[in-house]
Amino acid sequence: MSTLNITRGPEFTAILGLGVFRGEQVVPNDDLIEPINSSDEWIQKMTGIRTRVRAEHDTSVVDMSVAAAEQALAQASLSAAEIDAVIVSTITHPHITPGAAPEVADRLGITAAAWDISAACAGYTYGISQADALVRAGSARNVLVIGSEKMSDWVDPADRSISYLLGDAAGAVVVGPAESAGIGPTIWGSDGSGAHLIRQSDDWITVRDNDDVAFPTLFQEGPSVFKWASFKMAPVALEAIAAAGLTPDDIQVFIPHQANVRIIDQLVKQIGLPEQVVVGKDITDSGNTSAASIPLAIERLMRDGAAKSGDIALQIGFGAGLVYAAQVVVLP
Ligand SMILES: CC(C)(COP(=O)(O)OP(=O)(O)OC[C@H]1O[C@@H](n2cnc3c(N)ncnc32)[C@H](O)[C@@H]1OP(=O)(O)O)[C@@H](O)C(=O)NCCC(=O)NCCS
Questions:
Q1: Residues 116 and 39 in one domain
Q2: Is this model's pTM higher than 0.85 or not?
Q3: Mutational pocket test of ligand 1: of 260, 266, 324, the residue with most ligand atoms within 8 Å of the beta carbon
Q4: What is the CATH number of the domain that holds 252?
Q5: Same domain for 112 and 193?
Q6: 288 flagged as catalytic
């Protein structure tokens, strides 16, 4: 009986380059508080957010992805021809089909495999896991992973539950072969029983069939999401640290999804991260940019000199689904 050939890739992978695009407008709390009967003080105290970045009307998920990816390719010193797969994580690309990724690839001069993933605020860490596996299996040598969101297209300015939290941005990395392990095992999962906690207000069929149903926007049950993120994500992070063969004391940089500064502080405490750990808190200026938030926070820490290439970083994404994924990585 004949057997099939299979591919095998390198033993180790790493993040080889990083790029970001932040929405062109910086929107302070004061610009958003009137329709939600809120205040700058309340938003800062309850979320840590001072401003969020939002994209211009004509700037798309694809535009932001391309801008971030160009930087990531340049930092990795790789050309378009050396990329074998493009993964775009987004929940805000305005087409059910085609996905954003093939268009992003085309704009970058890439004709390799390209697809979208929908894993909300865990999308970047889901993408890293996929890219790591693809490279180690020999299915791709270098993979572009992009988290890109234009959240502002999907907010109701009068919605008090989530609208004021959200920003627009893209973050991109290249994952490729490495001499030693730069991406640890991913610990991931889902809890679909919480699907109703963060969601689109109405589905597209309901919108189509009912003249009185408004254009769908995002909505969340904030207190339930807060509890889930603050208390259920620490064990996931601890498992990712252990799976990498490390302890919390080995973690130099912590980059959780940027959902709320109070959630971030709670996670630091519950994971038992050392006092000197550098913590990503880009949410204060960029808001919650969903799949883009982790690469954005990494870029900010590295630009500020708080984190550097080679640092051991724990990253964890979590959000609508509910879905989550964590892994330890070496910063590019
Ligand atoms: C959204 C969030 C900041 C709201 O904070 P909270 O303390 O849970 O708010 P609650 O809904 O329990 O309301 C508490 C009080 O604040 C008020 N409030 C709620 N939203 C408000 C707003 N946007 N502005 C001003 N006041 C607000 C409520 O009316 C309530 O007032 P009361 O005590 O007088 O009745 C918080 O739940 C949160 O961050 N959740 C997680 C969000 C998240 O991370 N989502 C994305 C995950 S990927």
A1: yes
A2: yes
A3: 260
A4: 3.40.47.10
A5: no
A6: yes
Q: pLDDT tens digit string along 277-286?
A: 999 999 999 9
Judgement on whether residues 201 and 323 belong to the same structural domain of the protein: yes
Å from CA of 31 to ligand 1 middle: 18
pLDDT at residue 276 greater than cutoff 90: yes
Mean pLDDT of the chain: 97
> Active-site residue 95, yes or no?
no
pLDDT for 226-247, tens place per residue?
999 999 999 999 999 999 999 9
Are residues 174 and 215 both part of a single domain?
no
Specify the residue with its C-alpha closest to ligand 1, atom 1: 222
Structural domain of 80: 12-178
Contacts of 91-96 with CB under 8 Å at 24 or more apart are 91/118, 91/120, 91/123, 91/149, 91/290, 91/291, 91/320, 92/61, 92/148, 92/149, 92/150, 92/151, 92/153, 92/154, 92/290, 93/61, 93/62, 93/148, 94/60, 94/61, 94/153, 96/204
Boundary of a domain, candidates 119, 151, 178: 178
pLDDT given for residue 1 in this prediction: 79
